[in-house]
Amino acid sequence: MPAEHGGDDASSLDKNIWSVAWLLEKMRAKQSSKWSGTNAHPTYTNNKLGNVLNAFAHFVYQYSQNTIVIADIQTSSLGPKNVLFDMMFHTETGDSGVGDHGQFGIETFVKAHTCVTRCAQLELDPLHIDTDSEKDD
């Protein structure tokens, strides 16, 4: 993005680690669909794409060994395809970005998630919050 719009020009990006660059997708549709929020994780049982994205979020959580939750999932249509964009994460350390709510964000997802058809098809484990660390010694 040109400097007059608050970004650096391409030649300065390599020179300054604090450079700002705006990445814009020329082909991205102006219309988008929001499938989850920062701490809102609705279940889509009757929507094919929503169902796939529910299972994808579950997969990310399980694949990360219960340490990462993907949130704020959005898509835009590009012909017959859907492009995922603008996602964020909740991590155990809570330091992946401004919207990372750490363990609270992870627990919010686990409490809200209801397994959908594709979770079973992927043989994903049922979700539960590990209470062992919360027990008194």
Descriptive account of the structure:
- With 137 residues, the protein is an alpha+beta fold.
- It folds into two domains: 1-28, no CATH class; 31-131, MHCK/EF2 kinase (Protein kinase-like fold, Alpha-Beta Barrel).
- Helix content is 26%, strand content 15%.
- The protein is built from four helices and five strands, in the order αβαββββαα.
- It has a three-stranded antiparallel sheet with strand order 1-3-4, with no helix packed on it. A two-stranded antiparallel sheet has the order 2-5.
- Strand 3 (74-78) and strand 4 (81-85) form a beta hairpin.
- It is globular, with a radius of gyration of 18 Å.
- The mean pLDDT is 84.
- GO terms for molecular function: ATP binding; protein serine/threonine kinase activity.
- This is Kinase-like protein.
- It holds the Pfam family Alpha_kinase.
- It comes from Dendrothele bispora (strain CBS 962.96).
Summarize the structure.
It comes from Dendrothele bispora (strain CBS 962.96). The protein is α+β, with helices and mostly antiparallel strands and 137 residues long. The protein has 2 domains: 1-28, no CATH class; 31-131, MHCK/EF2 kinase (Protein kinase-like fold), CATH 3.20.200.10.
